Amino acid sequence: MPIDKPHARQLSNIACDEDRFMKRLLISVSIAALSACGAQDNSNDIEPDTVSADETELLLPLPEQTSPAIVSEDLAIRIKTLADDTFEGRGPGTEAGEASADWIAAEMARIGLSPAGEDETFFQTVKMVNQTVDTENSHFQLTKPDGTALPLTPKENVVFWTKHQDKNELSFDATDVVFVGYGSVAPEYEWDDYAGADFSGKTVIMLVNDPGFATGDPELFKGKAMTYYGRWTYKFEEAARQGATAAIIIHETEPASYGWDVVSNSWSGAQSDLVRSDGGADRAMLEGWITRDSAEELFASAGLDLEALKQQAKSNSFTPVPLEGVKASGKISQSIDQLESRNVVGKLTGKVTPDEYVLYTAHWDHLGKKSEEKTGAPGEDFYQDQIFNGAVDNATGSAALLEIAEAMAADDLERSALFLSVTLEESGLLGSAFYAENPLIPHSQVVAGINMDGALPIGRTKDMVVVGYGASELEDILRDVLVEQDRVIKPDSKPEAGHFYRSDHISLAKKGVPMLYADGGQDKLDGGVAAGKAAAAVYTAERYHKPMDEYSDGWDLSGFEEDIQALYQVGLRIAQSDDWPTWYEGNEFEAIRKQSLEE
Hints:
By secondary structure, the chain is of the alpha/beta class. It is built from 17 helices and 20 strands. It has a 16-stranded mixed β-sheet that branches. Strands 6-7 form a two-stranded antiparallel sheet. Residues 2-18 and 40-54 have low confidence and may be disordered. Keywords: Aminopeptidase, Hydrolase, Metal-binding, Protease, Signal, Zinc.
């Protein structure tokens, strides 16, 4: 699950590494051979020597035998493998990270899926860049009216980067600084935080989330539920449209839904992005975050009260506020590496309507390996290897995708099933965005999709949570399935976190495909809602986007097993019917879907 986003480890000249290219080619060939074996024999009980040719090139072995039933034991095997240190945090574009994609493809082949990628392979190539700011030779400086610099130290109270991909050196000097509230231009809400001013050549500074969260007013935006206008991605895009030279977000834990450590981990080191046709020229020269404390000091130096301005920003009568006498300067020195990553795609062909598909998605990537540094000594609580293993985020979803695929491989499907394991989710949902723009199956042929991301191993619950609740008829199908499990469906208890806009289903939803993103529940059989919320809070505080997100043999996967059985049933019911579930009337994606189906 992203926070929203982060990144891959830098690996220079990867695109020119002929040895690695040949190795990858050999793996692809051997996976294809394995797939052919699986297609000829629809059994999952493949003898070890059948897969040995492929396993000689994989960094970790495939399971020798797994069950077509959805069981905790098989989920554990796959999670443990994908979260292993060998894959070094599954950073896109890195050798170890791409090896995890090879492993997923080989496992798809082993359980009987056919290739659905490019050139009869399991892969869709995603061209990307890694941009790494040299913090020793770069700076972002905010100068107070008295001529002194605001104390800013990378990672401690500021992070910054650039989306410009065609220059190693960029700089700007002494720009005016303007506070633009929430940085939102939302005509449907009669809202424009940039109204009445020209921002060309200026630095804008803005609040996180959107006005609905700040007021709690259900009539303002969507109340506590974050809209796309609250997403950091939107804020930087809008600042660029306004002509800003630099764009800065003020971090606050509650409206962001994550602490500063997540920001620091996520936006430091190599920043991954898709290759931009304009080289990033349409973006601000510098983007970044600063802490609330630093922002307060800066505003006070200009005679402004940040808290008072936050109150003003809650109204659509807000107008931009210059920080008189404050100037912003910046210099970025960066390395730029042209790389490739891959989406992994497999399918099962239906017997009745093979051109109609049910889709399952999960991202395979995580944050990679940040450095070789360690803190403390082995065995101590604060010892960290700096490998961001991403066991929960998202080895769980990847394991679930494979588990459901294996179960469906044993079914006699009427419709086809497509299994899409995407890259670069942690960098801003880039792998799914690339697929959405370059679909291997036309969106009009995808009946519906189910996304899986970041399941907590907290045991059985009485509920499942639908993120973005109230969106489509897929929820009705899930509700019926949960009744059979003696469970209930519930809306997201933290809509202000904007999770609906923070995982890969949104890329397909924007193309009109009805998507379901259902997560594990919080009402634990043992301990109730309080225990479930406490477990989620501990994960967010101690493990989310941190090296501590590691697999443990002590995990209770019984609830995860039940959740995946439910999501399997939802997809199976769609695959075995001729119904086309739709978005609920009035949903923001309803019109897009209707147009797609009419074309």
